Amino acid sequence: FHSPMYFFLSVLSFLDICYSSVVTPKLLVNFMASDKSISFKGCVVQLTFFVVHVTAESFLLASMAYDRFMAICRPLHYSSVMTTGTCLQLVAASYALGGVNSALQTGNVFALPFCGPNQVTHYFCDIPPLLHLACADTATARVVLYILSSLVTLVPAAVILTSYSLVLVAIGRMRSAAGREKALSTCASHFLAITIFYGTVVFTYVQPHGFTSDTSDQVVSVFYTIVIPMLNPFIYSFRN
């Protein structure tokens, strides 16, 4: 492929299409149809694929930050480290972690009994509104949700913050103004996309129960399920 960054961008576009497609078609059907129901199996499948792709994107963004770190801070080692094999392994690892997190999160939710109200106060089968429907104590399930969501958010975020901190130090040491401008423009679009993505995910999943309302959760969810996938191509075009 042309370069690791363009390869990662193509994978990012694929992930955006995938997890947006899990949600958007059913949302459009609900707008036009009087019957807004979804089967139990359909809900399981929707949640499973959604968590897989959102988690994979979280780790992919960390891989992209590492790529920028190598390109700017270790340019002489870049071609030998960021090989085709390394890039493929990073993408495969992102998907594998997405699969593990999805299996744990989905199992955590649907192990609960659902014998009461069946109206999901959301536009897709997301974890917090499903926990509201369980007719059992969800304290343990919420702790599991918080721990897993924190891990798949904060671990990549730590990699990203560390990478970009070192990148900023390296940029500050550059003597050429043109070099600093080029390096900053390369990283600015990525950092903007990261800030929007992680901000909305943390707001939705890594917060105490009852801290937000159903309406605010839905509004924020629209951003990371529909708006962000639409904006990413425009955001990343800034660097070109």
TrEMBL record:
GO cellular component, one term: plasma membrane
Region forming the signal peptide: 1-20
Chain coiled-coil ranges: none
Gene that this polypeptide is encoded by: OR5
InterPro entries listed in its UniProt record: GPCR_Rhodpsn, GPCR_Rhodpsn_7TM, Olfact_rcpt
Job of this protein: Putative odorant or sperm cell receptor.
Positions of transmembrane segments: 44-66, 78-97, 143-171, 183-206, 218-238
Broad class of the protein's primary localization: membrane
MF (Gene Ontology): G protein-coupled receptor activity; olfactory receptor activity
Name listed for the protein in its UniProt record: Olfactory receptor
Compartments, record wording: Cell membrane
Limits of the G-protein coupled receptors family 1 profile domain: 1-236
Family: Belongs to the G-protein coupled receptor 1 family.
Bilayer disposition of the protein: Multi-pass membrane protein
Alphabetical keyword list: Cell membrane, G-protein coupled receptor, Membrane, Olfaction, Receptor, Sensory transduction, Signal, Transducer, Transmembrane, Transmembrane helix
Source organism: Myotis lucifugus (Little brown bat)
